[in-house]
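pasting for the record
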Amino acid sequence: MRTLGNNKVSMGILLPVLALFLVTIMIPANIGNAEVNNVPQTSTLYTSVTSDDKWENASTITTENEPGMVADDPASQPNSVIVNYFVGSIITSGDAAHGMVADSDGSQAWNHGTVITDGTNSYGMVASGDNSTINNNSGNGTDRASVQTSGAGSHGMVASGAGSSAHVNISDVVTTGNDAFGMYALNGAGVFNHLGGSILTSGTGSHGMVADGSGSTAHVNSSNVVTNGDNSFGMYALNGGLVYNHFGGLVRTNGTGSHGMVANGAGSRATNEGDADVLTTGDGSFGMFATNGSEAENLGRVVTRGDGSHGMYAFGGSTVNNNGSGAVRTEGAGSHGMVADGAGSVANNRSSVLTIGDGSFGMYALDGGEVINRYGATIRTDGADSHGMVAQGTGAIATNETEANIRTTSDDSYGMYALDGALARNSGTITTLGDSSHGMVAENGSGDPDDPDSGAYNNEMIVTSGDGSYGMYALNSSRVDNYDTIETRGEGSHGMVASGDSWAYNFNDVTTYGSAAFGMYALNGSFVYNYGTESIETWGAWSHGMVADGAGSVANNRSSVLTTGDGSFGMYALDGGEVINRYGATIRTDGADSHGMVAQGADTIATNETEANIRTTSDDSYGMYALDGALARNSGTITTLGDRSHGMVAENGSGDPDDPDSGAYNNEMIVTSGDGSYGMYALNS
């Protein structure tokens, strides 16, 4: 073995050191004889000047405007090799002055000591030849090797070319300049941070690990990647590159706009595997972001803490998947769990999504995107104004599949929300706990009266517990449909509501338990229809079965309506509304002061059609009641059982002596059974 200069090193001293390297730090087994530098140098060490194409540095190399060590084209050996011992240091200054370069095909560079560059575009280590390798490894299993760069655009480790790779083991890569990546793979290369490695970047736009181009990959395994600068992603795949956070890996970003893992472009993919973590703490920093036709998948844990920091975000025809045991959690305000933005963008949740901050939706589809809560998956939101699933804009779709669950716990937090022409569909379970937290809402043109598959529709279960929390709510020319079960438990929590030229249809079961909680409610020129094979049931006081409020509002019952609380009418029209108990339908009231059908106010109408039935069972409960200028007409059967429960009543100007079609009129059957119960009763003009 030869030495450089006059400083001789004995074989007896070097053999134990070499043995330690070979066993503990993966020094190539075929290192063989090498030129050893033991004295400070001020110029580049090239392997081509040696007879065996191998350089080892055990001293300090300081260069200006040129690299520290270069493994260039071999003269006699198959591959060139350069090694910086754990006692060695390489320091370069000036632009494009890289620390260690594996330049020729199949060449290798090994750093067990310290590499420092402070110039612009001066990389710590570079593998630029095909199938070349650079390694930043502990030299003795205890002391950590390090690569440090401070200039703009000065990446820590770069591998370029097919089959080339860069590795970090029990060592550190630190960059402090702007646009300075920790590790960078391009043109089909791979970069690996494993076995306790650490990557830390501090500058703006300084991503932790980057894989650029088809065939390029970046991997984290039982190691850490941390970025502190703004717009600095933890891991970034672009132009067909792939990035992976494997078992035990941690990717953390602390700056604003610094996403954890990003995939950009067709063929690009970011994967966070099981028992791996992605954490972002800055505002506007997504956990995982897929854009421009790429894909991101989470199988581990994704947590965001800043405001406006979504868990997973798909944009521009991309897809994000939360699969397996993956968990997505957001803690900041306005931080949605999963987002699909734009036509062709899709977000799939097959595990769990939790949002804690206010205004943070579980899943959000906008502008043609689609979000799907898959079979058995769960969504929970804990903040105010935090809806479970939202679809906004024409073509946007939100779907809660069979056995999937949505739960919101705070006020003004809907289970599912379709607005501006979007679609929301539920085949699982929706539960809301807060006040004014409706089960499903369709707003602003979401739905059409001629399209049963538009707006918001329920195929399974909706349960609301808070006050003023409707089961389903359509407003501003929208539509809601219930094909299974709706239950509301709070005060003023109606089963289904249509407002502002909207439509609500029930084909199964609507039940309300709170006071003043109507089964179905139409107002402001809207329509509600009950076709339910089972019924509308209300159990609280003043909880009417169906209500039509205002001119142009209509409520149609084609099945059954049951009210059990006091003061709860079967159907109620007021201020120009109209209620109709259709052919063969039934109305029953069991509470006191609970009339079968009521019309109140001028131009207000209540109609009981042929073969339709009205039955009241308690005292002071009329069959049909017209007051304040309204009209009630019966062509079916009216039966009252309680005392003072008249069959039909017209009061306060409801009727005219010159108009036989005014007030209250009977075309079929009225039967009263209780004491003081008149068949028909007109009073007060």
